Amino acid sequence: MATINLLPWRQWERERKKSQFLASLGAVFALGAVVIMVAGFMLNGEVDEQNRLNARLEGDIAELDNKIKEIASLDAKREELLARMRVIQELQGNRPIIVRVFDEVARKLSKGVHFNSLKMKGSTLAVAGIAESNNRISSLMRNLDGSVWFANPNLKSIQEDPENTDYGTQASEFELTFLQKATKSKEGDS
Questions:
Q1: Does domain 109-186 have CATH number 3.30.70.2830?
Q2: Domain segments of the chain: what residues?
Q3: How far is residue 62 from each of residues 22, 47, 58, 69, 72, measured CA to CA in Å?
Q4: Can you give the pTM of this predicted structure?
Q5: 89 or 18: whose pLDDT is higher?
């Protein structure tokens, strides 16, 4: 029989498979590198897109913060204007009452009495004046006590003024306080 030596063929086959394996390994390595690069580019693109979105959101948030500050400023101005309006309305509402109080004081003023000063603090009125006699001061106090607008007349001091040229030797200087008790509902009363 003929002798066939298969060793070189096996060695060539081994070399061929080895080179095929190395080529496959190189192709897989190259393909892996390409896949990794493509994935890296895709991830970088997504990160860049997310950064753009974040920047846009930060801009929108800053704009909204400015609007919130503006709204807070407008609210403060609104409260200030409302407070001013309340003060003005209160003054407008009290204006007829003040007029009515002064009118009522003039109506209750007794003959032979005149005021040197009239001060109002809150609902308390303080009067300083001169009267012809103590009876005139008593009459004034009764008139004030009988008024629907005033209450609690209180004589603080009384001094004789015999040298008064207007009322004579029985003239007296006095200080008197009384309370305003009228409310807006009594404004229509006469």
A1: yes
A2: 109-186
A3: 58, 22, 6, 11, 15
A4: 0.49
A5: 18
